[in-house]
Amino acid sequence: MSLQNWKERYNPILVLCIAVAFCAALYLMQIRVGIEKRNDTVEQTLDYQAILMMAQREGYSSEKLLRQFKDAGVTTLIVYDTTLERLDREKRVSAMPGDVLQKSAAGVHRGDFDTILVSPALDPDAVYVTRGQDEEAWNEVKEDLFLRYGTERVKQFSQTPEILEVKGDSRLLLEPDYRAKTPMMQAPLGLSVKELREVKEKGFYIAVRPQNYLPYTQKGVDSLFARIDKAGVQVTTYIPCGTDVIGFPADIEYMGRKLRERNIRLGLLEHVTQLQFAKFAGLDALLRSVDNNAVRVLNIDAQENSKLMMPDALRRWALADEERNIRVNYVRLFLKPQNGVDIIDLNLDYMRQITQQVKGRGYKIDVAGVFQKPGGTDASANGNPGFAGSYDPDRKALLLVALGAWSALALYMGMILPSCKGTKQYLLVIAGMLITAYSLFMGRGLSIRQGLAFLSAVLYPVLSISVILTLWENIKTDTKSTAGVIFTALWQLALAIALSLIGATLNGSIMGDLRFLLEADIYRGVKLTFIMPVLLTLLLFLRQYSIFQETGRKAADLFAQLVRICKMRLTLGHFVILGVLLFVAYIFVGRSGHTGGVPVPAIEIKLRLFLEEVMYARPREKEFMIGHPAFFLAVLAAYRMAPNWCKLALVLGAVIGQGSLVQTFCHMRTPAMMSYIRAADGYLLGSVLGIIAVIVVSILMPYVKPWLRRFSVNE
């Protein structure tokens, strides 16, 4: 193809615009990489009460067990709201359901309620609470009962001794009922100052999971932080619990201010689908209120954890820290022995191995780091890393990056529509840039950034394949050896990947702010991003090549070819092929994202585990198993002068790999450098499979070629 034809197809001005955009994207990406590299500390947490209960059940010293977990790498213990049931069990206060007291004789429950047993006013639908052995706990209980239930439900039943009556569900459940509100004895009752102090004395940091006050009252928030301040503890993280954040619905900004004053981070629990995080009402508003001073938290669901063997659970933690920017490992203990190992030894070994693997991937074990704009690294008064504020990319640089997306669209439109050349392409770019500038400088520009990311994700894989198709137009004869085809496929695939990575870099910088890194905002349209490159490549191929011509390029009428395809007489063979293609499309689209519902075969899970062990970043199956081998076969088809319909099928397979490569960069929780390395690993593994495919097909070619010719003639 002559230089003039290259210039006609690839407008030099638009190519220059893409180069400028790529440079701006690299500038933003190096800032993002720096932010990600500085965030290199992982916090390891356990539930404080779970440790105490394990020690009690096993007849083991809680002091010794806590010390052993600390030596195993646990930095932080999670403290939940206390409950009347727990305080009563620890004899810090006394609490009994009214229906039990009505049936009891004197001396029951340490004699704390003897004075009211004969009272006819005892209500079976109430809980009665009085002092125990801890005066501080009694004062906290009184405060929280009135804050949570009000004077209509809480009243003084007796003055000497002081006994409170709390109207409500007095049952004591053995198993939690997730369909109904928690009964009074097991309902949340605020943080215990004594418990907070105990954790501090054992040498641990503290993460808290208190529940919201319903009905909400600002006094409840004040009480929460007053207890934290009174205990004098280092709280690293607030992880929401229940259904909503504290402060919802009326006073989230007040809660956010309290967290900011103490530099307490907001913990975002990753959702079980690994997409965004568990939903709590008011969570996004609270995240904005703390200026995105937050960490991503991983926890295995209790029901799932009960079914897992330790080695299966073990592999998740360090991998999630590295691949999904998890910075708080919220580990759940195993409650049953496994493989003849006692649960205490099992869990201690579990924590030691998690710590070893996390350190092995280059992370430090301490208070979790945070994503932030460059500048905040010193520790604050409570031990948390200083927070310099939320990072937001420079708007002028983003505008330059947008130039790459609009120029790519103009290039593609020029290839599809002969009338859309020159001035019309420039007008398209100018209009797009004006829209982008208005959106970016008049607000956050989230919608336009989502659109620009979509354009980059779907267009650059197509443009990279277009360049390869243009190179193939110089092929005149079938003279290249199999080794020559393999060598050509290697450098042409490398070129296609390099061109696709331009779009990937644009994507990674367009969505490179803190909310995307935390997955508070996510890339929309994942499934469409997989489909569109295939459809756009199909249109491009039909525009430039006639699939009804055996070989070579011919000025093709896109509309005429589509009409001819629609008018084709269908045979049983066509339906079989169509059925296979529909099944492949179902798997292809259904397996994308996290909610497709298409199950992963056991053999593929084993393959993933193997690749995670032997490679730095496990490449995506769509690249090394489909896209890159199809690319090698497409090169073979081009140099063996195969029919155009055959090349089309292979080219569509090849663009799947390029699209998957770019789409990897839409997962902003994955560190940028890992995404680049994943692309390189995919190239290496895909090339191996591609070489094998070329050799096998070359051996079978003498038998296949006559059939291809007959099929083309019949068509």
From TrEMBL:
Q: Which domain of life is it from?
A: Bacteria
**Species name:** Succiniclasticum ruminis DSM 9236
Q: Which Pfam families match?
A: DUF5693 (PF18949)
Transmembrane annotation, as ranges: 12-29, 397-417, 423-441, 453-472, 484-507, 528-548, 568-589, 624-642, 648-670, 682-704
Any idea what this protein is called? Uncharacterized protein
InterPro entries membership: DUF5693
Taxonomy, top ranks, is: Bacteria, Bacillati, Bacillota, Negativicutes, Acidaminococcales
Does the record carry Membrane as a key word? yes
Which keywords fit this entry according to its UniProt record? Membrane, Transmembrane, Transmembrane helix
Record flagged with keyword Membrane: yes
